[in-house]
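The instructor's notes for this session suggest beginning with a concrete chain rather than abstract definitions. Hand out the sequence below and ask the class to guess, before any prediction is shown, which regions might be ordered.
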Amino acid sequence: MIQARRAALALAVALALFLVVRAIQAHRSAPLALWHMFAPHEMSAKELERADWRAYLAAEDRLFDEVRRNVTEKLAPEDQVPANRYFAGAPIYPGRFAHDWNRSYELAPDGPPRGVVVLLHGLTDSPYSLRHVGRAYRERGFFVVAPRLPAHGTTPGALASVRWEDWMAATRLAVREARAKAPAPAPLEIVGFSNGGALALKYALDAIEDETLARPDRLVLISPMVGITRFARFAGLAGLPALLPAFAGAAWLGVVPEFNPFKYNSFPVNGARQSYEVTQALQTRLETLARAGKLKALPPILTFQSVVDFTVSTRAIIVSLYALLPPDGGHELTLFDVNRNAAFGQMLRLAADTALNRLLPPPPRNFAVSVLTNASPGVDQIVERRTPAGSLAEDERPLALAFPPGVFSLSHVALPFPLSDSLYGLDPDASENFGAHLGAITPRGERGALIVSLDSLLRMSSNPFFPYMLARIVDGAGQTEKTP
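After discussion, reveal the predicted structure:
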């Protein structure tokens, strides 16, 4: 009894200390701006279940009008700067572009669609992130539906109150729209990036037992959020000091200038909490259906993942998803290894250097594995090493690809963007301009002079192996067998 009381007292002291530290951090953090405090009125999950695509777009128009009236037109003079996406005079203001990629969109092929695909973007992101994939699908004759998920594309303040069930409802709405554009038996595919990958997988799992949901014929997951860091489990506690007005900043894990036209830089505690909850719901559903022997009804899953990922757990993708999949499902995992060029060998952390061997179970496996890695240590040329499902043999194929100079790995955010992406690319397309070339910045100078930390600028934001990934995606589009 005494030990239990001591343990409870120690826990209470630790919690109190944690809350005090969070309160102090919040008090010292940057002040909240209009875009942190204002959230436009999104449709609820119940409203989304009853709505169609036209109603969702009409509601979206009202959202962006709310942001214009309550944020853009009310900015204080000190916020009317070129590095603020909410300032109408800024080169990065989305309203000045020919197309605002924060909004939902559709892409129609030239002729009758041979299939349809739904694109689901990631957390804090926008439909911009999968536009290159969408264009490739359209060129293959697919009709493309790319929804803006609730609380995205408007203000980061919207993420402070959203629920993951709202994202799922929007996903179901987008699939309904997709099926209306290309009814069965035309193939239906879903591509999900990061949090969108979790939503795509959760939808496919729900469709196994819910006959009202159209079943997808293939899933493509890019850096899917099957599992995240343990901190998100306690993110709700991190926001408790925000109950006091003086510590409103505690509701935010990061308050950062909004210089990206198509992605939030600031991140509220609720965003982390909802991402954790959706992964928990996803893993529970996976385990339940696995025990019932129903995962064989899943469509083929093709996943692309960097071996090192600061945002999502690569291990969770393997252990909580692929390890549960039955054989003969046509599932495949593609991993992008770290750069094993000798220039980085001595600087890589041991955990990063050995990640590939630690994460992958030995063959034979129930799923195929492809690894993109250096042909040998110190060699720039990249090869694909593929082990088919159920096989011990590994096939090697040279690729006309290499890590760019100075790049030691991919990152979570890099995978869906080619090196030529105007915003995130290392070699941006000059014919398209969104007011900034964030991926091409190579900062040199003194610390403290920039409005953003160097970490965000040094993180790789485009994928040198994007042509390989895109070919794998679109070459298999519409080729999977129908689920009986």
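Then share the key points. The domain at 19-299 is CATH 3.40.50.1820 (Rossmann fold). The chain is about 35% helix and 15% strand.
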